[in-house]
Write a structure and sequence with these properties.
This protein has 526 residues and is mainly β. It has six helices and 34 strands. The structure holds copper (II) ion (CU).
Length: 526
Amino acid sequence: MRERDMTRRQVLGIGGALGLMTATGLSASAALARRPSITGAELRSAVPLPPPFQVPLPIPSVLAPVSTSGGADRYAMTQREASVEILPGVRTPLWTYDGTFPGPTIESRRGRPVTVTHRNELPVPTVVHLHGGRTPAASDGYPTDLLLPEGWQEAAMHMGHGMHDPRAVVTRLTRDYTFPLDQRPTLLWYHDHRMDFTAPAIWRGLAGLHIVRDDAEDALGLPAGRRELPLMIADRAFAADGGLAYPALDPTLRERPGVTDPYLAGVLGDVILVNGAPWPVYEADAARYRLRILNASNARHYELEAVTDDGHRLDLVQIGADQGLLAAPVTHRVLPIAPAERYDVIIDFSGVAIGSRVRVVNRLGSGRTRDVMAFRIARDATDGSRIPRTLSDDLPDWRRSDAVKVREFSFRTGRMHGGHGWLIGGLPFDPGRSDVTVGLGNVEVWRLVADVHHPVHLHLVGFRVLSRSGRPPLPHDAGLKDTVSLRPGESVEIITRFDGYRGRYLFHCHNAEHEDMGMMANLEII
Ligand SMILES: [Cu+2]
């Protein structure tokens, strides 16, 4: 950050969400007591927006491997600029994986390694992280392990507020990421994770899906094939020229990180995209569907409901969490989903009148952001699917007494390099600092304490939620998670075993703007 900017921010005394609350006359504690439903500020689009439920729901294409020899699959992907029609009749320049948003989906099998050769033809360095992957550190996409574009000058490389990271492994033009995928089957997603610039890079389009399957899950009889739909939900805003609006201090994303002051708590858009289409509609059979839902938004939270034309809510039967199948189904009427969380949900349209609609709405939205997408129930159908009462029997059941250590981390606003930041344990991220060192195989309990909303993500391991502010977990905390939504003022306990691989990993807030403004920490497994 440059001195001129730091001085300006000091003079304004901006404190992000808490500063804004103070400015409106609320004390921080009063504001937290009100539990604001949104952390962040909304950008308004400058182009006319289409009516809802007109654009068909796209399904991201599945990438074909370039080779499948030796028990492993190899893929190749090019990161490049592309002009894509998101709003009907409007061309939007994006940064993409292979020319599409979302990027192509990778379908893989548990325990069968996948190597993806990424080629960077974008104008800036990138980093690929497979969110939820149990991945050796060298392929986990540490934020300074940059993949440089061909012509990038080292001297111009921004390294996080002047920090130097001697452990960074930097490559040029291409890089192989290898994923063993020795893990429970689930929906993962890959996205950019570059130091200081993750939020604007994801916003511009660098996100895609990666599904892991296994024989046991295939044998359950869940809805499959056309009746299994991935749903990547993300909000965006559009500028007058059709490009994506984003309040970056440096729109080239080359040197100066950060966003303008009103957006320090997070960037929200006024257009809700599902699989890259605005408020889409899907023509469905009157049958069960398996919805693999991902919130790929930078900062927007949702509380999803499925509402019929005559106003009643359909059950959302949760069968899986971030890290795979639950032990048994959990039925919701309203499903909260924070940035980076995934929910595996069965919805049954068999009782819905043919020709009518089921709208998926966000109870936390208002105006246009209340709608997400719709299903039009187009035809009667036979349905051989089922929802077994037992879904899996391999969930870890770590006990408090297994834990060799209990740690506490605060996730709070604060000062960073003379400006506004978001801090873990009072500190902004520094790749050169060791924050947490854990012995391989150790079980620990972590207590995570929040000021505003912070969806906290651990790399490498899944965890279970033990408690929320001293009370039992919520129904949607079931199963194995890799991202937990801390609500304003809340203290959440999680438990995990740090197994898999040794090396340098991360934990961080997945409000992507918070992440870029310091809210990450190093997790060293030895
Ligand atoms: Cu956060």
